Amino acid sequence: MKRSKGIVAAALVLSLAIGPACGVNQGFAQEEPCAVLNRECLACHGRDDAVKKFADGSVVKTYIDSQSFAKSVHASLSCHDCHQDFTVTSHPERSFRSRLQYRTVESRRCRQCHPDDVIGARSIHETLLRKEKSGEAIICTNCHSAHMMSRVGAGSAAKSETKHCLACHSREKVKKFVNGETVSTFVTPGDILNSPHKDIGCTDCHSDFSSARHPDNRYGSEREYRHSSAGMCRRCHYDKYAMVAENIHNAMLSAGRLDAPTCVDCHGTHSISSLGNDRLSIVRKCAACHKEVYSAYSRSVHGGALFNGNNRDVAICTDCHTSHNMQAISSIDFHDDIPDRCSNCHSNPVIMGKYGLSTDVVKTYLSDFHGMTLSLYRKETWKHYGPPPAMAVCTDCHGTHDIARVSGSDIGQMKIKLMKRCASCHPGASENFPDAWLSHYRPSFGVAPMVFITEQFYRIMLPLTITGILFLVLLDIWRYFRSR
Amino acid sequence: MKSMEEKGGNQHIRRFGPYRIVEHLALIVIFLVLAMTGLPQKFYHLGISQSVIVILGGIDNLRLLHHLSAMLFIGLAAEHVIVNFVGVTFMDWEPSMLVTLKDAQDSFQNVRYYLGLTHEPAGCGRYTYKEKGIYWFVLIGSVQMIITGLVLWFPVAFTRYLPGIFVPLSKMVHTSEAMLIFMLVVTWHIYDSMLNPDVFPINKSIFTGYIGTRQMKRLHPMESATLREEGSADQVDRSIPV
Q: Which residue in B60, B163, B196 is closest to A432 by CB distance?
């Protein structure tokens, strides 16, 4: 630590006599003797305007916060106990290349009282000691601080844990993987402090690490390491993990595709974010891998509104594919669920009202042949009969990522397109065939008047006929008994 | 007439021959299958419909069954129309199902009877105006059902010649007309031939081919009277094909 510049009046004898036993109250002074000595040092080191300069230009403040020191585990020691070259009468001038060299040299003093065989019992120290043999310096104060030293593993760990880890991880270092790839171990403290994880400590995620443990985990590659990190997230976000375990990305991973994304690929690592509100970011996350889909989507009515107007109502990737349990689009279940996904917005009068769109689209679909059949397929336990054939759903006519606006389109072009789509399931469909579908309209005088009039005719006839018959039956019975 | 036979001390009159009996039985079976496979499609959102659909092996199997029974129904309807047209036109069968002025008079008479203006109900012939009414209603309805059903079954083929709108129109007619016929049968026909105090618990004549003399007198007084005039048990009833 810092060197005292002041020449102190109090006797050298006193400090020598008290020595390391300073903590023991010997009863010949009103104040504790080491406190007296320390006060002499603090005459200069209590000022916060002095610095020590190193050869490389770096500086360190010589200020000591006496109150913090008094709370530290070393409160009972005098300055001299650690800074043995310094006494009230002796304050040698020393020079160091750098602050780092200074800290390294000073750290050796700690180990006079804390020998290697004692501190080596903790695996974190063991790792450090091993590294020291390969030439890396141990700097105790990186983790334990200098004048506010606390027992990292005992109680106060949580408070200083981040500091403890950042002592190394705030420096540019790399972790090497078996295949030669490297990843920076640098952590920007601000990343965590601005993230939803600001209140949790490093070891809450990196649970096999602690102030006492720093295992040297080995991974084949960076992707392997990133996938292993999903296990950290699982500890708290088990609900998401359970969904992810069944999604298509996880299926890819199981098939050996390490390029499949995992938690941190979308959410980030230390600068983690929930992505919840930033719809544009979500789309871009997916786009990182799904480039073609992204380009089709940007041309669609949904994508266009998102990118050009930052519209928050339009569907983005996760609205249809969900964010964690996305299914293979080739699965019949995914296909059959599409009307539900579309109806999340297109049946919602609040959203559709803003754009003057009809909320009848899903109802009219479900009440017609395809929708009705599909809804029955979904309820059948078709295990016994084999999977049902695919039924036309929203996307089969409207398209998927490149979905376009219907109103204002060229009707003739649309009909030709529609006929082609119809013909893919109904071979031989003529140009009249698409008209069999009322385009999501309910019959009215304006649209399909023949159907509307027929509907109204039966709507009146049916109850009228049945009521008439019931009336006749009652009349018949009444007359029968009356005339007996 | 009408061969008369002695059965358990009660005189029975032969009313229907085996052809009519078999035809009616076939109609019952086909009608029930069509209704059982058709109604769940109309009311597909109801739990009971979905149970029926699942029991019958899914919507596709249900539709297959509906189509198969529809083919039988078309066959039955064609047979009925052709046989009776030929019978009435060339074989001198009595056109007892044709609606006549007498039916209008009978219905008018019965309105008076119901209103208590007369104590005599209409005296009907072989078929009452009510029976004729439901017969023609169902027959014409069946033609409608067959045509619209075929459009729904083969929409691609029909829309080659017809505008596409005929498909939803056919659906509307098919589903509504089916409902009307079904309701008519379960209300009027079931009442008239089962719950009616005159015949309760059931008028078995369409199944056995025979009707009791007392019942004959009550239900078909005119025909009953004709029989008595003719008085011959050996005379072959021209309206009863062998």
A: B163
**Cα B63 to Cα B73: distance, rounded to the nearest angstrom:** 15
Q: Would you state the structure tokens that stand for residue A67, as one six-digit string?
A: 């109150």
Q: Give the model confidence (pLDDT) of A356-378 as tens digits.
A: 898 989 899 988 899 999 888 88
Give chain B positions within 8 Å (CB) of A482: 116
Is the CB of B156 less than 8 angstroms away from the CB of A433? yes
8 Å CB contact of B114 and A475: yes
Which of A432, A455, A457 shows the shortest C-beta gap to B162?
A: A432
pTM of the entire predicted model: 0.69
CB contact under 8 A, B59 and A377: yes
Q: What is the crossing angle of helices B18-42 and B47-55, to 10°?
A: 120
pLDDT, tens digit, 9 for 90 and up, residues B102-122 = 888 988 888 888 888 888 877
b/e map B5-14, b = 16+ CB within 10 Å? eeeeeeebbb
Give the pLDDT confidence score for residue B228 in this predicted structure: 65
Using a CB–CB cutoff of 8 Å, tell me whether B135 touches chain A.
no
A17-21, A261-265, B188-192: the lowest-pLDDT one: A17-21
- Closest residue by Cα to residue B235 from B86, B20, B87, B13: B13
Q: Give the residue-averaged pLDDT of A190-203.
A: 83
Q: Which residue shows structure tokens 């066959």?
A: B75
Q: Which residues of B touch A445 (CB under 8 A)?
A: none
Residue A345, classed as helix, strand or coil, is: helix
DSSP single-letter state for residue B5: E
More confident: B80 or A336: B80
| Contact call for residues A480 and A474 (beta carbons, < 8 A) | no
**A7 contacts chain B (CB < 8 A):** no
CA dist list (Å): B30 to A83, A205, B55, B66, B148: 108, 70, 19, 10, 18
Q: What's the token pair of residue B129?
A: 């105006």
The pair of three-digit structure tokens given for residue B74, joined into one six-digit string: 């078309």
Alpha carbon of A349 to those of A304, A308, A441, B212: distances in Å?
Answer: 22, 24, 16, 66
d(CA A134, CA A127): 11
Best of B110, B165, B180 to disrupt the A interface by mutation (most A CBs within 10 Å)?
Answer: B165
> CA–CA separation, B117 vs B110, rounded Å?
10
Of A388-392, A472-476, B138-142, B228-232, the range with the lowest mean pLDDT is B228-232
Sort strands A51-53 and A182-184 into parallel, antiparallel or unpaired: unpaired
**How far is the C-alpha of B110 from the C-alpha of B98, rounded, in Å?**
19
From the list A205, A177, A175, the residue with the least C-alpha distance to A191 is A205
**Cα–chain center distance at A88:** 56
Q: Is the ipTM of this complex over 0.90?
A: no
Interface check for B64 against chain A (CB to CB < 8 A): the answer is: no
Q: What is chain B's length? A: 242
Q: Which residues contact B15 (CB under 8 A, 6 or more apart)?
A: B2, B205, B209, B210, B211, B216
* Nearest C-alpha in A relative to B119: A483
CA distance A31 to A38: 11
Q: Which residue of B has its CA nearest to A437?
A: B168
